[in-house]
Design brief:
This protein is an alpha/beta fold and 368 residues long. The protein has 15 helices and 17 strands. It is globular.
Length: 368
């Protein structure tokens, strides 16, 4: 079985996340894109799917007819497990009661709201269209439909963000009574508009301090951290992401979508018009593909497993892939345990609180 991810890249305004903007008179590109998704999906016809995630850009920009078309593609193409987790991303400005209601009828039982911040200054910084109040109103609309669970996406560590501002953000979030929070630090991608403006992020020491504040506040509110950037109430972890972090297979459809299926890692071209032309010309839109060696799969399972609070059972890892980590890697694991960056409990290793703050460094030391 595999997880299914569908990338919908459209947005109404160019901002921090968007890859393609829908302007007046260009709405027909969404219909063309859906036709391409249907064609691409055919090569997986009959594949059993255990989770579905519709995200990227603003899938909620689709109108009700297009939403129905999208789910027709899903249900007619794939063997969908009964009572599986089906997630759908919303930006606050595109939340409408009728869309939420239709999605619930179509089987969506988890919605993710891309709030990013409740602070007007940082929303403007990110180029977002919504305000604190519109984000709260959007949450209330989704919550009123009783869809199952609601995740909120947020960011922290904006340049110059104070502890009081961070605590205010967390207070607003906890008052919403959401079941799940995905919380990421602001990163500067090369060639992004933030990178080119020479914006400097705060020191790693300060980031560590803020991260600890976040963890303590959320823990006091009943949220359990289960992955480096994800916190949930009991029983509300993202099953889609857990499959990904556990080394499970996943199928990505759409522009720039990544897949890991039948031991092969591959991804589509990242330019929308090129993707649609290749699909319409009956060509594969795959930009790059490689057969993943057993060693690489094992390393990925180890590294992604260390992102999770539950850690990695080394015996289970060896049963799944064979004893293929080399002696240097085992020595490095031992050294990381000795330095208290990793903790060992029985056959399970996991990252310590100290280690979470330097997880990227730990991972780089474990790759052969």
């Amino acid at each position: 079985m595999a997880s299914l991810y569908i990338h919908i890249p459209f947005c109404e305004k160019k901002c921090f996340y968007c890859s393609f903007v829908i302007a007046v008179g260009q709405e027909n590109k969404i219909d063309q894109y859906l036709k391409c998704l249907k064609i691409e999906a055919q090569k997986y016809k009959g594949t059993k799917i255990e989770t579905i995630y519709v995200g990227g850009g603003t899938p909620s920009l689709l109108n009700t007819s297009q939403i129905n078309q999208l789910f027709e593609i899903i249900y007619e193409t794939f063997d969908v497990e009964v009572s599986l987790e089906i997630s759908f991303e919303f930006n606050p400005e595109s939340v409408e009661q009728n869309k939420v209601s239709i999605l619930k009828k179509l089987g969506v039982n988890r919605m993710s709201l891309g709030v990013q911040s409740f602070n007007e200054q940082y929303l403007k910084y990110l180029g977002r269209n919504h305000s604190e109040q519109s984000a709260l109103n959007a949450y209330r609309i989704i919550h009123a439909e009783n869809v199952g669970s609601i995740n909120v996406d947020m960011m922290f560590m904006f340049p110059g963000q104070t502890i009081m501002e961070l605590e205010d953000e967390l207070k607003i979030f906890t008052q919403m009574k959401s079941e799940h929070l995905s919380l990421y630090t602001l990163t500067l991608e090369k060639n992004s508009r933030f990178f080119t403006k020479n914006i400097k992020l705060d020191s790693e020491k300060l980031q560590a301090k803020y991260y600890e504040i976040v963890r303590k506040v959320l823990e006091n509110e009943g949220f359990k951290q289960y992955e480096i950037s994800n916190f949930s109430k009991e029983g509300y972890q993202s099953q889609h992401n857990l499959n990904y972090w556990s080394g499970g297979e996943y199928i990505g459809l759409g522009v720039g979508a990544h897949s890991f299926f039948n031991g092969r890692m591959y991804w589509n071209v990242s330019r929308l018009m090129l993707y649609m032309k290749m699909i319409q010309d009956e060509r594969s839109a795959i930009e790059h593909a490689e057969q993943m060696s057993v060693l690489k799969q094992c390393e990925n399972a180890l590294l992604f497993g260390l992102r999770m609070n539950s850690g990695v059972d080394i015996n289970e890892l060896e049963k799944r892939y064979g004893k293929i980590l080399n002696s240097e890697q085992y020595d490095e694991i031992h050294n990381l345990i000795k330095s208290k960056l990793l903790l060992k409990e029985g056959n399970t290793i996991r990252v310590s609180d100290k280690g979470r703050l330097v997880l990227d460094e730990i991972c780089s030391r474990l790759i052969s």
